[in-house]
Structure formats: structure tokens, C-alpha cells
Design goal:
By secondary structure, the protein is α/β, with parallel strands linked by helices. The protein has three domains: 118 residues, HAD superfamily/HAD-like (Rossmann fold); 110 residues, HAD superfamily/HAD-like (Rossmann fold, 3-Layer(aba) Sandwich), CATH 3.40.50; 48 residues, no CATH class. 34% of the residues lie in helices and 23% in strands. The chain is built from eleven helices and 19 strands. The strands form five sheets. Strands 5-4-1-13-14-15 form a six-stranded parallel β-sheet, sandwiched between helices. β4, α3 and β5 form a beta-alpha-beta unit. It starts with 8 loop residues before the first helix and ends with a helix. The relative contact order is 0.15.
Amino acid sequence: MLKPSTARLCDSYDAALLDLDGVVYLGPDPVPQAAVAVATARAAGMRTAFVTNNASRRPAAVAQHLSQLGIPAQPADVVTSGQAAVRWLAERLAPGDKVLVLGSVGLAEEVEAGGFAPVRHATGVAAVVQGLEPRTAWTDLAEAAVAIEAGALWVAGNTDATYPSARGLLPGNGALVEALVLTTGKRPVVVGKPEPELHRASVDRVQAQHPLVVGDRLDTDVLGANRAGTDSLLVLTGVTRREELLAAPPELRPTYLSSDLRGLVSSHPEVVVEGDTAFCRDARAWVDGGMVISGSDASDDALRARCALAWLRSGP
């Protein structure tokens, strides 16, 4: 069941751990309402960390992009899966070890800043680190496969199957990871969401006591929050679609939901279920022929009512 909140979420939680792609921006473009929502939350005293599974850019580049979109940010405000991957390697490799970078120039720079030698070939490498890079070619995958089969450690920033863009969903890092899984029969260590490493780093970064995870994906943002025992706000500006949310199993269900980031600076109404009908303020959802519907009402309240009823019918 979704959780009600009579207070604005920005007044109820001390920090927001904000995903980026699909929440704050879509590629180079801002998500509507995001900048105003973040400014309002900050004005209420909420601390913000920008937490991304995307390892393609270093924090300084991400912070610059955010600032250009009207969300002032410093590199210290950004936590990336590339940083998490390098921390993981630092616990297992010696300084100066060669690391094959299957990813962007930004990821290679992160590896070098961590004290390792980034390379693009399989010879003599101790590890492979993989992040999203749209220009990844077959030859890049082949070098990584050779290194992995030879025993190199393999760490991936994330296994997101898709990547949200203004043009729709595009292949994500997970699609390229699967190509190597099929080739080598091995699987990488994943350091991004929903695994705990990135979440812990984000909480530490803002010294949060009562954080709220904000994201657009059920299988990373929401699942990671649930595993950590942290409340979450799902926004529908990125990957997750309404019908997918209705069918979500318990471990993928968010605490709150909203069409966009304005849900961060709003209260959230209670949903009441009476038999085969659910009510959320003036919205109503009901069961018709085994389907949970809400007529032509496409409001957030109607979706909340539909989710509550659908989740109750499918079990806790």
C-alpha cells in the first residue's frame, strides 16, 4: 500500500537521493518541473545528492550539466557508479594495475584518478570496468571478452537494460553486459543500484538520517531503496510506465508516486480500499471483469487508487 503524507515530502525527509536520467534530465534536456522542484526542496532545508548509475561522466561534468539546467550543483553533490566501481577496484588491485575500460573517456579518467592505468586492450589487465558508452564497438567487446576469459576481474556500473532519452527508451549498459555474459559465461560484480554500495555512498555524502530515494526505475531505484529499508518516490518521467507499476511485485513497489518531481514538494493523500473499490480524494478505481480500472481519469490520484487495489488483489 502506498504511504500517505500530510506534510510535503521535502518537509518529512532530511535528504533526497535523486536519480538523474529520467528524473532530472533526459539526455541534454531538462525534465519539466524538475529545477523548480529541487529549488523548492532545498529552500525547505532538504539536502540533495544526485545519484546515477550512469558511469559515462565524472561528477564535475554532471554538476556542470545540472547547473546549466538551472539546478546549481558542485561535483561533491554527485555520486556515480563509476566512482563506486573504482572504490571496489581499489580494495582488490594494486596501484598502477592495468584496467581495461569498456566505457567512456570520463570512466577512463575516473579509473586513472583512482591510481590505475586505464587501457583499451586485453594484454596484461587485472580488471575490466564497464559503463555505458554509445560508441562501444564489437572490437571493444572482443577485447573485454578476452580479458574476462583470461581471469580479469569484471565490474559493471549497472545492468540497466534501457536508457531513457527524449526519443524514447534506448539500449542501456545492461544490454552490452549481456553480450559479454553470453560470450564468456560469466557475470560481473555490479556496484550501481539496486546494489547497496551506491546507496551507502549517497547516504554518507549528505549525512542523511532519514533519506528519500527518488527515481524512475522499479528495478534499480525502488528495489535498491526497499533493500536498504529506505522510503522511495517513483516519478513517471523516465522508464517506468503505469501498467508496469500496477503489476509490480512487493519488492518493486514504491512508497510514494507522482507524475513528475513535483511530488517531492507535495503532500500525498491516503488511499482507502473498500471491497473492490479504492478511493483517493475524488478519484476512484474499481474492478471490472478482473481488471482494475479508473475510467478516463489519468490523474496521479487515480493511479494511486489503481495501484492500491491492484497490489491488494495480487497479495502483499
